[in-house]
Structure to design on (253 residues):
């Protein structure tokens, strides 16, 4: 199965679906069924962040989603997490199209900062090289700052994922604050592209702030979970995906 692509791909993070499922022992809602609905609605990818404590996505989910994605030509599976915890086991076993290295601690509530360069450079290099040797694209979760972006290029990463919660919080403060923050991200994206890096983004992006953030230059992919799944509670999962795709494909304001 194939899907038309917009300039910016939408990868749906299914962690929150698994979180609801894990509150009971009934196996519902099904994470794989949710993934299929997202793909049928046009999402270009599926993202999961399996944490060591399996609080939401579990190892079996990752493997089942990998099997599902084999039937969807041109769609991508992105597995994110800390490569010093459990991520690399999945990368070596499944060889997804993309892995995103995130510097979370084991008990961290949610991702809230990027890698610290140059401190993390030496220990990341062999893991990046190892993933790339398997044909897996590597994206590094980063703050939108010059030094980490330059280091990401130097360590051999393919892409950066810009951590967008600061933009989302600024956007809530009004148009001026949102545009000021957006300019920071635009500069970061331009720098990344000039160094040969692809640009992804994620964390707290939603239907409102995407109307501005979709204009980010060189934006290859957005990974969205919490806001999209929350929207789906009211409109259904397929419609939620279509709503996000419509925003991403709309002409810039």
């Amino acid at each position: 199965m194939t899907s038309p692509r917009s300039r910016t791909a939408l990868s749906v993070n299914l962690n929150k679906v698994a979180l609801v499922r894990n509150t009971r022992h009934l196996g519902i809602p099904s994470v794989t069924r949710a993934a299929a609905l997202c793909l049928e609605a046009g999402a270009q990818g599926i993202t999961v962040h399996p944490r060591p404590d399996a609080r939401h996505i579990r190892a079996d989910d990752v493997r089942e989603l990998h099997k599902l994605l084999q039937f969807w030509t041109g769609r991508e599976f992105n597995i994110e997490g800390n490569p010093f915890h459990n991520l690399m086991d999945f990368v070596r076993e499944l060889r997804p199209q993309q892995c995103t290295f995130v510097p979370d601690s084991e008990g961290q509530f949610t991702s809230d900062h990027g890698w610290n360069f140059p401190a993390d450079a030496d220990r990341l290099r062999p893991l990046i090289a190892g993933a790339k040797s398997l044909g897996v694209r590597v994206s590094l979760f980063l703050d939108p700052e010059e030094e980490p972006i330059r280091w990401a290029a130097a360590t051999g990463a393919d892409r950066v994922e810009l951590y967008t919660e600061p933009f989302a919080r600024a956007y809530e403060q009004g148009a001026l604050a949102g545009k000021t923050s957006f300019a920071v991200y635009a500069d970061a994206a331009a720098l990344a592209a000039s160094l040969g890096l692809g640009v992804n983004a994620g964390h707290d992006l939603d239907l409102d702030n995407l109307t501005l953030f979709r204009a980010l230059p060189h934006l290859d992919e957005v990974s969205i979970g919490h806001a999209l799944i929350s929207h789906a509670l009211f409109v259904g999962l397929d419609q939620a995906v279509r709503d996000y795709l419509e925003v991403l494909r709309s002409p810039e304001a």
The chain has a mean pLDDT of 93.
